[in-house]
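Backbone shape codes:
***
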Amino acid sequence: MIAGIEVAPSILNADFADLRAEVAKVATADWLHLDIMDGHFVPNLSFGPAVAKALRPYSKLPFEAHLMVTNPEVYIQPFKEAGVARVLVHPEGTLHLHRLVQQIKASGLEAGVALNPATPLSMIDLVLPELSIVLIMTVNPGFGGQSLIRGVLPKIQQLRQRVNADGINCRIGVDGGINQTTAAEVVAAGADFIVAGTYIFRNQEAPAQVIATLKQLGAAKIAD
């Protein structure tokens, strides 16, 4: 049974001219999601630890850094010093995933792994018990505003079945193409952590209302 849905707004689709105000709008969320892109692992550039450090005094939310980068090992300490609480990495970005997960945890941070749409769950067999979250990408990473790839939904279901069967204390997150319809689909598949950017920051409704709507999906799931 899902205890509750956690929501993490991605500032990738926020107004970068006024990030301080944008972060204030999502104070009712559970985490703040930072998409870090190096222009190599994904075809886009975003920002680095300096932006996280600059925003840290203006939000009470824990920050998570989603490292869509090559050689993520070199970014762990800089993001820790910037005030990030959790780091998520991609298996393809490193030669030694288990060692990297241990490095993240040894630094005092929570560790998570993000899986691209075509990356199988078997990639995290060894490290799954060490993770606080697995982030299932329902778009190919690099850009916001994409449509959810529904062919990934069975992967969410399979991961939920394994986590439940093995009693693993790990959140299942989904990132990509989230709106009111797709959010309900991924929660029904087993997700309990939702990352959303465009849907939260570029919605006609206030971000706080959108976040509340997403969290209500958890209550509906429990009711089922």
Observations:
- The mean pLDDT is 94.
